[in-house]
Amino acid sequence: MIITIDGPAGAGKSTAAKLVARRLGFEFLDTGAMYRAVTVAALRAGIDLQDQGALAKLVESLRIELPGDRVLLNGEDVSVEIRAPQITAASASIAGSPAVRQRLVEWQRRIAAGRDMVCEGRDQGTVVFPQAECKFFLSADPKERARRRLRELKARGDNTTFQEVLEAQEARDARDAARDIAPMVPAADAIVLDTTDLTLDDVVARMVQEVWRRQGKSGEQASHS
Ligand code: DC
């Protein structure tokens, strides 16, 4: 069974997706980490991020693996590097590359084939897994999303300001939503959850209940399965 969770940065997707996967005994696929790993490789190679030919060649040469919580690029652990602000900023260009998207979509389908997986990103319910059994789109007020992101950055010792986070987020959202290829929009059959006033526990509980409902299980049955 495939569960997709899409939505903008800071809507709480990653944390919620991991917890939902754990509660259900599913695996978790962080597709943003794959775009970020390609971004690291492109910046290291000094490639012009608009050069589609160069990006196509680059992505063919890469090996990206996601064991547990780690991200390996050609065997090297880049889990920390992919979260750096300059990678976050440049990832929107990489995510707009048709060549990169085509290859990553193929990899994502291959990874998930025949498995129970929670797949998180921007296009999982619309493009990658249109047949997914259960689709969610998480949203939240932009200021609340920026506050959450700032908390994360501060915990990592980064001293970016709220205004900087908000502006970078608005720029990235606008690019993700407006791009021609796989824009960030909810699938027609996605359940849209506004997480602004919900706790993480609430969000996870609602998603898990919905999955159980679709699996034909009541909460009582599911807790014993
Ligand atoms: O979710 P994230 O911040 O780690 O995503 C990094 C970038 O990749 C961001 O610009 C959105 C983009 N992305 C995408 O276009 N499609 C996905 N399935 C996942 C992420």
Describe the fold and architecture.
- There is one protein chain.
- By secondary structure, the protein is α/β, with parallel strands linked by helices.
- The protein has 2 domains: 1-25 and 122-212, P-loop containing nucleotide triphosphate hydrolases (Rossmann fold); 27-115, Rossmann fold, CATH 3.40.50.
- It contains 10 helices and 8 strands.
- The chain has helices at 13-24, 31-44, 52-60, 85-95, 98-112, 124-128, 142-155, 162-178, 200-214, 219-223; strands at 2-6, 27-30, 64-65, 72-73, 76-77, 117-121, 134-139, 191-194.
- The chain has a 5-stranded parallel beta sheet with strand order 2-6-1-7-8. Strands 3-4-5 form a 3-stranded antiparallel beta sheet, covered by helices on one side.
- The structure holds 2'-deoxycytidine-5'-monophosphate.
- 2'-deoxycytidine-5'-monophosphate is lined by residues 9, 31-32, 35-36, 91-92, 95, 121-124, 172, 176.
Chain-wise SSE layout:
Blueprint: E1 2-6, H1 13-24, E2 27-30, H2 31-44, H3 52-60, E3 64-65, E4 72-73, E5 76-77, H4 85-95, H5 98-112, E6 117-121, H6 124-128, E7 134-139, H7 142-155, H8 162-178, E8 191-194, H9 200-214, H10 219-223
Helix pairs in contact: 1-9, 2-4, 2-5, 3-5, 4-8, 7-8
2'-deoxycytidine-5'-monophosphate binds at residues 9, 31-32, 35-36, 91-92, 95, 121-124, 172, 176.
- Unreliably modeled segments: none
Number of helices: 10
Q: Give the rounded overall mean pLDDT.
A: 92
Radius of gyration: 17 Å
What fold name stands as the CATH topology of the largest domain?
Rossmann fold
Shape: globular
Report, as a whole number of angstroms, the end-to-end distance.
Answer: 16 Å
Biggest sheet, open or closed, and with what strands and sense? 5 strands, parallel
Strand order of the largest sheet: 2-6-1-7-8
Q: Assembly type of the shown chains?
A: single chain
Structural class: alpha/beta
Number of strands: 8
Give the full name of the CATH homologous superfamily of the largest domain: P-loop containing nucleotide triphosphate hydrolases
Order of helices and strands: EHEHHEEEHHEHEHHEHH
Portion in strands: 5-15%
Helix content: 40-55%
Count up the domains.
2
